[in-house]
């Protein structure tokens, strides 16, 4: 309109120009009247609604989940934002709105700190395991007693003068409890990581067939290293458990703590069983005929075949002989026993003495792997005339022996 008024006087003196100016003035007056009306309505609304919203309790709790949330009404957030822009536009705002706006920074700090409290509290509620809940009962009872001052119809509202004192007190209690729970969770996770690090086979198949004595000598070295690793890891797990008890400040004889120790003891038992299953599974892969054929594996051990008194003899013997030891089956049983003995260096958590051998023997997966690993050595008649049964020995002895004519091996020297 300013540009329009700057036109030539002869243009502005025309009736059409005067009509345009008159219409413009009428329209602007109507708009200004509408704006003033809406602004007055906004001012009346905030006088009523803002005061009601400031009298809401600081926090609210879900009755079903017990989760908390900050109860700062979105209408108040919108009011603070609108007043800010009105002031930037040099528009006069109602005094009641201006009073609320002057506390905008205080509200921002208070809601921010309450958000931190609520987030930590809710995280603890959702991450607590059933076995951990009794251990934190007293902690939550103390926190909930503080929260009762700001939750519910009688709770502290946003006009209260002691909000900052409540935030300081509650923040300290929630932070302490959250740190204790974090320590427990961290120690449990570290325990699980230690157990996972044991899941390595304590056996290694050599690229070429090995003599039984050499193979077992190398196996004993691996078993010694594995036992030392489990012993060191066991000491670390016991230290973590002691640390958890220390931060909780609970008696070692308390039923709730004993239940928690039993829970961790089951985790350790599962980890040891997992380590045993890895070694048993590795042995099974070495003796399973189908896997050997599929992967075209070379023989694992060197076994001599001799003729004594008309009978075919293996050195070392495949089957157990009464009164004698040193057969292949003895060796395999010894390997399996060493896999189960992996639990011996790890002391139990629930009792001062004892090992996890009982849990290992009760583990279904370990038992299945055990039986499947010894199946190729179940007693068939070991003579050259029963080549069908002798193929069960190919995982250990070498398939080439059984592809030769049995007459060649059974022929007596002249």
Could you outline the blueprint of secondary structure elements for this entry?
Blueprint: H1 2-5, H2 9-12, H3 15-54, E1 59-61, E2 68-70, H4 74-88, H5 95-101, H6 104-127, H7 137-147, H8 163-197, H9 212-248, H10 255-287, H11 289-295, E3 304-308, E4 311-315, H12 328-340, H13 357-362, H14 364-374, H15 387-390, H16 394-397, H17 400-403, H18 406-410
Antiparallel strand pairs: 1-2, 3-4
Descriptive report:
- The chain is mainly alpha-helical.
- The protein has a domain at about 200-410.
- The chain is built from 18 helices and four strands.
- It has a two-stranded antiparallel sheet.
- Strand 1 (about 60) and strand 2 form a beta hairpin.
- The longest helix has about 40 residues, at about 15-55.
- Residues about 380-414 have low confidence and may be disordered.
């Amino acid at each position: 309109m300013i540009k329009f008024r700057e036109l030539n006087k002869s243009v502005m003196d025309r009736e059409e120009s005067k009509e345009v100016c008159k219409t413009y003035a009428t329209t602007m007056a109507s708009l200004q009247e509408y704006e003033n009306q809406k602004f007055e309505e906004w001012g009346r609304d905030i006088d009523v609604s803002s005061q009601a919203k400031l009298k809401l309790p600081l926090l609210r709790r879900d009755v079903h989940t017990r989760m908390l949330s900050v109860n700062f009404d979105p209408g108040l957030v919108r009011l603070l934002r609108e007043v800010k822009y009105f002031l930037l536009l040099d528009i006069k705002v109602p005094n009641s709105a201006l009073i609320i706006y002057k506390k905008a920074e205080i509200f921002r700090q208070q809601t921010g700190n309450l958000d931190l409290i609520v987030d930590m509290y809710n995280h603890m509620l959702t991450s607590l395991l059933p076995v951990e809940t009794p251990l934190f009962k007293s902690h939550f009872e103390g926190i909930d007693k503080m929260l009762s001052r700001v939750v519910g119809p009688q709770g502290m509202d946003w006009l209260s003068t002691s909000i900052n004192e409540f935030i300081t007190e509650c923040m300290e209690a929630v932070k302490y409890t959250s740190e204790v729970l974090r320590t427990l969770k961290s120690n449990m996770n570290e325990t699980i990581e230690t157990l996972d690090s044991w899941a390595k086979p304590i056996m290694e198949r050599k690229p070429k067939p090995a003599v039984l004595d050499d193979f077992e000598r190398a196996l004993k070295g691996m078993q010694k290293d594995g036992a030392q690793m489990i012993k060191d890891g066991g000491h670390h797990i016991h230290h973590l458990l002691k640390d958890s008890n220390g931060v909780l400040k609970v008696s070692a004889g308390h039923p709730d703590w004993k239940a928690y120790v039993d829970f961790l003891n089951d985790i350790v038992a599962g980890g040891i069983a997992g380590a045993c299953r890895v070694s048993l599974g590795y042995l099974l892969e070495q003796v399973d005929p189908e896997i050997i054929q599929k992967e075209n594996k070379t023989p694992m051990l060197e076994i001599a075949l001799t003729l004594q008194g008309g009978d075919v003899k293996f050195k070392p013997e495949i089957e157990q002989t009464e009164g004698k030891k040193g057969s292949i089956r003895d060796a395999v049983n010894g390997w399996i026993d060493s896999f189960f003995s992996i639990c011996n260096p790890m002391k139990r958590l629930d009792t001062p003495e004892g090992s996890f051998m009982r849990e290992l023997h009760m583990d279904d997966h370990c038992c299945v792997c055990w039986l499947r690993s010894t199946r190729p050595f179940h007693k068939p008649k070991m003579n050259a005339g029963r080549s069908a049964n002798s193929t069960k020995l190919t995982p250990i002895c070498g398939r080439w022996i059984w592809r030769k004519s049995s007459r060649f091996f059974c022929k007596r020297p002249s």
